[in-house]
Amino acid sequence: MALTQVQIDRVRNLRGVHLEALQRVNVFYGANGSGKTSVLEAIHLLGMARSFRGNSIRSLITHGEDTCTVFGSVALPGAGALPLGIQRSRNGEAQIRLGGKTVRTVAELAEQLPLQVINADSFGLLTGSPGARRQFLDWGVFHVEQQFFPQWQRFQRCIKQRNMLLRRGKLSHQELAVWTRDLARSGAAINEFRQAYFEQLAPGFQQTMARLAPSLDTLELRFRQGWDHKLTYAEALEQGIATDREQGFTHAGPQRADIRVTSGGHPAAETLSRGQQKLVVCGLKLAQGQLMSQLGRGQCTYLIDDLPSELDRKHGGLVCELLASMDAQVFITCVERDEIQSVWPDTGGLAMFHVEHGRVSASGSA
Ligand SMILES: Nc1ncnc2c1ncn2[C@@H]1O[C@H](COP(=O)(O)OP(=O)(O)OP(=O)(O)O)[C@@H](O)[C@H]1O
Ligand SMILES: [Mg+2]
Fold it and tell me: Is 279 helix (H, G, I), strand (E, B) or coil?
């Protein structure tokens, strides 16, 4: 699952950009404002149909244009290639093509091109709201457990319906019992998937961190399921019914789940330096990619915006060493040509691209 070529049109300052002969590791360097982040945004658009910064699609479409498009080709295991394409319009419409056919859901696209982003917003994984951490966890579960997504959709439907009825306040015991029963079932299933995944991820994270930041105090990764762990979800819902009715929404459940990183018993977000936080974020994301590959689910593609920022040379080098030891395809941006090149352990494997005023030119390999 590696991109061999990508065509980008009308994405921010990129027009008619054709990236060919992509390698396992692709470095995009250039001055501020040249278009490096935009290249990563375009690839993210191809895999997820949206911006990785959570911005509206309008921010990705070149000013004055109505649509933007990205096409790509993914090499399939064995032989052959799978063409993918996306067009997004200012009015929000999305057209997704996969293998020459139009597909309806982003999930189908995401399955073909699993992406991991590491950028300035990734600090939110430690310092932001639990929602970002649930998204991180669910990315992993989605890519290793096929039953997760339909179950997750079921859960979303149930909780929406149950909350709507609770808000209206006029529902009978019987009505509430039906929605509570369905919610309990799908919520418990989601939790089991998450827990099983987390138990595999946690040791991988520890191993990764031992390589990336051996000097860090004991790091611990904990999973909180979103309700009292001594109760089943059905019991927790039962216990919370009075409060749910009173306040008009469902309190307990997987929608409150979280994962926490602590260092020496203190919250990582409060204790670790900015560079150490970046290493933990890299550790979490690299551990996910490694687990996916260990479980035979293929490789994910890493989009790493400005890898050198916040990291000293030694730690930047350690992240590169770890990336080099994986089979995953990597797209990295940096400002100066030699920033990544000089710390990359395998000198044979980098494709270098120079980005200048929205134009991207291959500038050899290192
Ligand atoms: N919708 C848009 N249409 C046209 N140009 C845009 C749009 N949005 C942003 N730009 C411009 O695209 C250029 C490239 O932005 P980008 O974020 O990719 O730069 P960069 O190379 O990552 O820079 P830096 O090193 O500062 O991170 C910038 O000059 C930016 O102002
Ligand atoms: Mg940038």
Answer: helix
